[in-house]
Amino acid sequence: MNSKLISNGILRAIAVLAAVLFLGYFLLLIQSVLIYIIIAAIIALIAKPMILFLRKKLKFPNTIAVVSTMVLFVSLIIGITGMFIPLVIEQGESLSLLKTKGLEENIGNLITQANEYFTSKNIDILSELQGADVFASLKSIPNLLNSIVGALGSFSVGLFSVLFISFFFMKDSKMFKSALLTLMPKGTEDRFSHSLEKINDLLSRYFIGLVIQITILFVIYTIILLVIGVSNAVVIAFLCALLNIIPYVGPLISAFLMIVLTMTSGLGQDLDFQVEILPKTVYVMIGFIIAQVVDNFASQPIIFSKTTKSHPLEIFLIIIIGGLLAGPLGMIIAVPSYTVLKVILKEFISDNKIVSSLTKDI
Fold first, then answer.
1. pLDDT category, 249, cuts 50, 70, 90?
2. First and final C-alpha spacing in the chain
3. Do 69 and 54 meet the contact criterion of CB atoms below 8 Å apart?
4. Does residue 199 contact residue 339 with C-beta atoms inside 8 Å?
5. Cα separation of 128 and 124, whole Å?
6. Where residue 17 falls among pLDDT bands split at 50, 70, 90?
7. What are the angstrom distances between the C-alpha of 78 and each of 65, 72, 82, 85, 255?
């Protein structure tokens, strides 16, 4: 009898393990669809306040409110794309095979001028660069551009999929909530329903706060770059602000990007490194540091503590832990994941002292 029970237990364990492996493999195969769904859900959360405003304040029918919101989102996408087109065309012409030689000469002149300046300060940077084949990679740039153009088709499919899914997430949110509730064990539907509403509200506020944070940085970067006179200031500001989605690591990448784009914005114009390029770069970095100080000590603590109802120290520690567990992706999803976990824990084990302490403001 015991041997039969053991055999059944082993078979059940094997069956469960096989089912988990099959589910994992299936999710791996449809990972693109899962990404589309996640992005669509984020868009729906960001759009929620606008849809409610159109429905309650302007008395729009639900479908019209959703369509109007979708039109706004599509218009923003078209506007941002149109903003990048001149830069892409300009860079495409500069990096084409016909102009690779000229680009190499311009970069060589820039390095020579920089070396002359730093040599006068007893700093030899050219010897460090000699071991690196800086220009060999330029030959592969046209191939990279061709790959990017080839990926535009896939991007178009993904964009259409995200917009299509977003529309139904906005329009039929109650239907999806009902579908999730049917999967819950009996007796937990009410608590789970309350958790979903709270999660939906907090995540909506969080992503809106994230948009506000990026917008503030974008405005500051744009003003700084325009005042200093950097080419393509708006595009550079947008890219650098967008990189701040990745906590702590993003600002480092955006700082490097801003330095490089500022220094190379004068290529082919015979600008003097010491008199024009270096001072401009220094001013840009001073402005960048000021923007980061405003973001780290004003925007982030105020926005995220109010939207997620978490202490700034909590957010800092959770982001660090997320980075240690899953790298940059973990840092991006750390705060929303922690917010979801807090709501669920408060709803189901609120009597726990630790949970009660962490969720007292929710």
1. confident
2. 52
3. yes
4. yes
5. 8
6. confident
7. 20, 10, 6, 10, 27
